[in-house]
């Protein structure tokens, strides 16, 4: 793949804003048409899945577009049919579900880390295409994205997280273990693609060495893959506020107010003479 320059931040933000406006239009079509949309995000740890999901949902209605990020299965869930715990999270009419990792855990981390048996893995590879064909036959729009990142870039992002107290929580023991199992994950991914890259639910690979390009490319592809149309917007007229009936606001002294911390921050940031005169 030919390496190209990273996009300037201003250009990236401008195109992202345009695409986010289109995502809102798509959301309105989903609501109006009763469509059901499932988007699966998979890929290496630190490949940029979470960042893409964050930009997609930034301006969407959380009642329509919801993120599904399931924790480790409970003891009871481990005894269920594997796909059973995901089914309650599928969309009803007029809903979008974004799976931040999905049933493909079994083909990736569970397979590599030994969290499932070889037979459970083989059964998954047989059943997954059948499961996804059932979703497609029932009218669900299913899109699957694989975020691809090099081992050098992944290590760089892991190191960045270690030095950032705001993102250190993203480094789990399983994430760190993935560094030593790079080729194992590669083989598992290749095998998964062989069995599950089916005509009804293709895998779309997102090159994510550059996070900004990855987000723009993925969102653009998502919008092109959903046959949405503009939904006419009803006119909104703000009603006139009626005349007062004599209501008086409760005295502030009777309320428990949040302290003005930001005012304190502002004063602390000013030179002493300005703070005294403010």
UniProtKB/TrEMBL annotation:
Keywords (A to Z) from UniProt: Coiled coil, Kinase, Transferase
Enzyme class: transferase
Keyword Repressor: no
Molecular function GO terms recorded: polyphosphate kinase activity
One Pfam family from the record: PPK2
Keyword Manganese set for record: no
EC number(s) per entry: 2.7.4.-
Signal peptide bounds: none
Domain Polyphosphate kinase-2-related: from-to ranges: 8-232
Coiled-coil intervals, chain numbering: 2-29
Listed InterPro entries: P-loop_NTPase, Polyphosphate_phosphotransfera, PPK2-related, PPK2_PA0141
Gene3D superfamilies: P-loop containing nucleotide triphosphate hydrolases (3.40.50.300)
Example GO biological process: phosphorus metabolic process
PANTHER family the UniProt entry points to: ADP-POLYPHOSPHATE PHOSPHOTRANSFERASE (PTHR34383:SF1), POLYPHOSPHATE:AMP PHOSPHOTRANSFERASE-RELATED (PTHR34383)
Subunit comment: Homotetramer.
Annotated family: Belongs to the polyphosphate kinase 2 (PPK2) family. Class I subfamily.
Matching NCBIfam families: PPK2_P_aer (TIGR03707)
Free-text function comment from the UniProt entry: Uses inorganic polyphosphate (polyP) as a donor to convert GDP to GTP or ADP to ATP.
Protein name: ADP/GDP-polyphosphate phosphotransferase
Taxonomic lineage of the native organism: Bacteria, Bacillati, Actinomycetota, Actinomycetes, Micrococcales
